Amino acid sequence: MMILRRLRIPLIMMFASICLVGCNSAKNSVKNNNSSANSGNISVTASQAPSYLKSIISSELPWEKLRIPVTASVESPAQVSMSGIAVMERGKSINISLRVFGMEVAVLYLTNDSVTVLDKWNKRYLNEDLRGFLGNFPVNIDNVQDLLLGRPFLLGQSRLTSMDLDKFHYEATDNGMWACQPTQSNGVAEYAFIFLGETLHSIMAGVAGKQPVELKYENPVSTTFGPMSGIVSFNAQASKKTIAGSLIWDFEKSRWNSSVEVKPVSIPKGYSRIYGADILRGLKL
After folding, report:
1. Dihedral sign, CA of 158, 217, 129, 63?
2. What pTM was computed for the model?
3. Could you count the other beta carbons within 10 Å of the beta carbon of residue 89?
4. Torsion of Cα atoms, 53 then 56 then 61 then 66, to 10°
5. Given CA atoms 225, 91, 265, 214 in this order, what sign does their dihedral have?
6. How many CA atoms lie within 13 Å of 40's alpha carbon, on the beta-carbon side?
7. How far apart are CA 61 and CA 220, in angstroms?
8. How many helices (H) and strands (E) does the chain have?
């Protein structure tokens, strides 16, 4: 039980950190994508960037459901790593179940309306408005799914199409990379995508008056439904602390669409409620 008590706070912090941040059944096909390495020799200009984004968008095929093993880790300010299963229904929900020694200890469940976290060790739960919990970003579940899997997006929009190319500002960056940033801002959130060739390298996102959050993408893979990222890592400054961690997706063991069962999450009886603000105060963030 001492191990469980030591991991309790890192577990809650992991979820706080992570949140700061159409088809028949298809057999998964995953291949390592070496485009990121090959793209290092390509220097993309601002005028060329829209054609690159168009090619990226055309390679991203729609999907309905995804079940995939995941390893969630936090490196700072504490260290903890847990494995689990993520089940996503496109545009509707994300369910991440984490386990320790084969026992489910925590669940993260997001819909377009709310975020729910179950701390099964201590029989506690968090249930809050999704946008408020994510720093008032005007997001939907499509956006969060794209962010987790390594695809560009526009806040509040279900998916990108070639008609959206003129909604971005483009510029060339260092080391042959290029960036695109939405031209319209709601005055609350700003974000930009940085690419190496046709591979997403990172996302910079921030809320007015706060330090930006950086997400980096590694291990690009080619799936049945187009390119995705096998690893997403995050780094954010909160007060005097650095929050850093990663999600590692095992696409080799993923399942798609009709082969995936989606189950809603309910709050068990007898659980006491906790609040995101209280967690952050307790962590002195």
Report:
1. positive
2. 0.84
3. 18
4. -110
5. positive
6. 4
7. 16
8. 6, 16
